[in-house]
Amino acid sequence: MFKTLTALLFALPVVLGRAIDRRASVPAQCAFLLPIVDDLMDNLFENECGDAAHGALRLTFHDAIGIDPVLGGGGADGSIVIFNETELAFEANDGLDDVIDTVGPFFLKHASVLSPGDFVFLAGSLSLATCPGAPQVKLAIGRPPPKAASPDQLVPEPFDSVEKILARMQAGGNFSPQEVIALLSSHSVAGADTVIPGFEGIPFDSTPSVFDTQIFVEVQLRGTFFTGPGGNQGEVMTGVQGTTRLESDHNFARSTPTDCIWQSFVNNQKQMQDQFAAAFFKMSLLGQNENDLIDCSAVIPPAPTFTGNAFFPPSLTHGNVEQACATAAFPNLPTLPGPPEVVPPIPQADDDDDDDS
Ligand code: HEM
Ligand SMILES: *[C@@H]1O[C@H](CO)[C@@H](O)[C@H](O)[C@H]1NC(C)=O
């Protein structure tokens, strides 16, 4: 009897793992989130910084930036989920149909206790917890249901100019250029599913499963390759085979007022984590009043740690950098050994059930 009880007491924390560990520090009003956290981490993301996690992260932005002082829109309200038939038809939301297919069933499963906006930001905050090197972001809960779809034309496009994107980010979210570049750290764990017709999961850097500063390194390299035929709107030549480069990222790295900001993130993991986390939390509050929300940050687990340094991919050196910042030199970095790399595509979340197509 005693033996059984002891065994049980020791076994419980192992079985309930993540939830038990954090239960002590979680405010009572947030405790209902713990089983949802486990469900999303284990069953939606499968504890991987892969396609499902990348999609959930992108979804936060496309939901939240749907707000404008003149045109309206509810911001971080989950309208992209509820009014998916309207918002997924916007050109800038291309590719999010796959994301809604993947996360939708999890939203519906928990919809009786979690509002759409809260779900989008819980999933996005947790997606980061799967990516080594990502910061532990803050999470506020209690958003009311969305009232209407966002108006069209509020989500930046990769072929928009730096001026246009900065103006939109300022109008929609009061984001400074520094905060916009911090938010673009997200493209460290990202790829394109729709920019190059016929190609899916083409990564933006050579390490799409690690939230590291390689995106800032690799976008600054001279472009010499297209993955696929090239010539697509919003795409420019990339420096690393197998990857693709957005025209907007390319221009942010090469234009005032953002070129020196872009370069300052190179090999500056701590700056990237801190500034991304702050800007991401600000984004999560667009259209919301923080005072009406509950701080449930304690339910977000830390991401796996990452201790690596930035590098030049094999065969590339400082000589391949297209220096843009006029006031500071691009840092020198070690070159990874080996022959030139061809970065493989990111496996797609719907690959498993795609065998009928
Ligand atoms: C500000 C201007 C931005 C532009 C022009 C832009 C544009 C794009 C484009 C064109 C794609 C590829 C979509 C596809 O073909 O599937 C993409 C992917 C992605 N973006 Fe952005 N983005 C911006 C900002 C952001 C922000 C602020 C976030 C999040 C905080 C974000 C997160 C992502 C993620 C995670 C992906 C990868 C999705 C996946 O791999 O499935 N982006 N972005
Ligand atoms: C997408 O929109 C349709 C039609 O409004 C709705 O029935 C469906 O539940 C929505 N999907 C999700 C995941 O909410």
Main sheet overview: 2 strands, antiparallel
How many domains? The number is 1
Rg from alpha-carbon coordinates: 21 Å
CATH topology: Peroxidase, domain 1
Low-confidence stretches: 1-16, 353-357
Describe the structure in your own words.
- The chain has one domain (27-320): Peroxidase, domain 1 (Orthogonal Bundle), CATH 1.10.520.10.
- Helices cover 38% and strands 3% of the residues.
- It contains 13 helices and six strands.
- It has helices spanning 2-23, 33-44, 51-64, 79-82, 84-87, 96-110, 116-129, 162-173, 177-183, 214-218, 247-252, 259-264, 269-284, and strands spanning 140-141, 191-192, 202-203, 235-236, 245-246, 294-295.
- The chain has a two-stranded antiparallel sheet with strand order 1-6. Strands 2-3 form a two-stranded antiparallel ribbon. A two-stranded antiparallel ribbon has the order 4-5.
- Residues 51, 54-55, 57-58, 61, 95, 156-158, 165, 180, 183-184, 186-187, 189-195, 234, 246, 248 line the site of protoporphyrin IX containing FE (HEM).
What is shown here, in short?
It contains 13 helices and 6 strands.
Provide the descriptors you would attach to this structure in a database record.
357 residues, mainly alpha, Peroxidase, domain 1, two-stranded antiparallel sheet, 13 helices, 6 strands, 38% helix, globular, disordered N terminus, disordered C terminus, binds protoporphyrin IX containing FE, binds 2-acetamido-2-deoxy-beta-D-glucopyranose
